[in-house]
Design goal:
By secondary structure, this protein is of the alpha/beta class. It contains five helices and five strands, in the order αααβββαβαβ. The chain has helices spanning 3-11, 13-23, 32-46, 82-94, 112-124, and strands spanning 52-58, 61-67, 71-79, 101-110, 136-140. The chain has a five-stranded mixed beta sheet, sandwiched between helices. It is globular.
C-alpha cells in the first residue's frame, strides 16, 4: 500500500474499502463465512499496512470485519427472510455507538422488498440521509 493509498484511506476509509470491494471477485463462496474469509484475504492483500480484524468484538458491538479501527464491514448472505432482516437491523442499532463508518455487504439473493426496508430503516434511524454516502454504505455483490 503506497503513500497515496494510505492518504486516501485516511481521508475516506469507507469509500476506499468499498472501492476495493468493487474489485474483489469471490470464487467458490457458498456461505457467509466463505465470503467473509475471501474478503478478509483480499483486503489483507491490498491493505498490507492496515489492521483488519475478523469477528471483532468490543462492548455490545460484534462485527464480521473491522478495517483499521475505522470501518465495520457486516456481511449478510441471502438477505431473503424477515428474520435475517431483523437480525441485521438489530446489529445496526448496536453499531450506533461506533464512531467510524459502517459498510453492509450483501451477497447472494437479496429480496427487493427487504432492500427497500433496509434503506428506509437506515434513513429513519438517522444513520444517513443518503443511501450511498455517509455513516452506512450498502454494497451488493
Amino acid at each position: 500500500m503506497g503513500f497515496l493509498d494510505r492518504v486516501k484511506f485516511r481521508w475516506d476509509s469507507a469509500g476506499f474499502v468499498t472501492s476495493l470491494m468493487d474489485k474483489w471477485r469471490p470464487r467458490g463462496c457458498k456461505t457467509e463465512k466463505d465470503f467473509e474469509n475471501s474478503l478478509y484475504k483480499f483486503l489483507h492483500e491490498h491493505l498490507d499496512t492496515i489492521q483488519i480484524t475478523k469477528q471483532y468484538a468490543r462492548g455490545r458491538i460484534r462485527a464480521d470485519l473491522v478495517v483499521g479501527d475505522d470501518v465495520i464491514v457486516e456481511l449478510k448472505h441471502n438477505l431473503n427472510t424477515t428474520a435475517k432482516y431483523q437480525r441485521l437491523t438489530g446489529q445496526l442499532i448496536e453499531y450506533k455507538e461506533w464512531k467510524g463508518q459502517i459498510v453492509i455487504l450483501l451477497t447472494g439473493e437479496v429480496d427487493p422488498n427487504l432492500r427497500k426496508q433496509l434503506k428506509g430503516f437506515i434513513e429513519s434511524e438517522g444513520f444517513d440521509d443518503d443511501w450511498d454516502e455517509g455513516t452506512v454504505t450498502v454494497v451488493e455483490k
